[in-house]
Every structure is written in structure tokens, then in C-alpha cells.
Amino acid sequence: MDKDKLIVPNQIGYLILKDDGAVLESGGDLKNDERSANVIMGLLNLTESIDDNFIANSSCERITIDYEHHSYSICMSNRHIYIVKFSKGQNGATTSSSSSTSVYIDANNELTTNSGTVLA
């Protein structure tokens, strides 16, 4: 599979990290973007420090960071962290016919989208 043409509608970049934060693969807007990898690892480390009585650690399957013109979807599978950057239209909506594309881990522990595309 050619990862530079990766897989998801409206995708404009991606990072695949090892669970220690090392960049394995990258493309698009996130090509060789160590800074974003470090920021996202900091965010993931912060989520691990949240009190289990407030939010159970095991309940977090995906983190979405939403900005006016783009968003990031972050999830973990098989000791890898997958970050996908999505583009939005001028009014803040995604450019596809659906309202948004989500990336998540399915019942088979595979990285997939809400449109059913298997990513890894």
C-alpha cells in the first residue's frame, strides 16, 4: 500500500509512530513533522495521567483535535500510534458528502474509518 496516497477522504497528512513516539512513517502535511509527533505524544502522556475515577484509561479509544480548517484523529493499534490530519471546507465542514471522517479501532483490532476503509 502506498502510504503517501493513504486511504481516507479529506486526508492531508499522516504520522505513524511507535508507542515511544519515534516516527515510523509520515506523509502529506505531516511529512517528517517531529514537532507534531512530540506535541501529540505529550498529549497522550497527559491523558494517561488523568485520574481513573474521573475517566477510565481504557475508555479512550480515539482523540480528535478539531480546528477551524483541519482536524486530527489519533488512535493506537498494535503498539503504533496513528495520526491522520483531515482538511475541512471553507465553512468548517469536511469536503466530502459525509459530515466527518473518523478513524478508530474496530472489533477486529484494525485501524478503520467510519466509511469502513481498513487502514492497517
UniProtKB/TrEMBL annotation:
**Compartment(s):** Lysosome
Main subcellular localization, coarse class?
other
**InterPro entries named in the record:** LAMTOR4 (IPR034601)
SUPFAM superfamilies listed in its UniProt record: Roadblock/LC7 domain
Sorted keywords for this record are:
Lysosome
So what family is this one in? Answer: Belongs to the LAMTOR4 family.
**UniProt-recorded name of the protein:** Late endosomal/lysosomal adaptor and MAPK and MTOR activator 4
The taxonomy runs: Eukaryota, Metazoa, Ecdysozoa, Arthropoda, Hexapoda
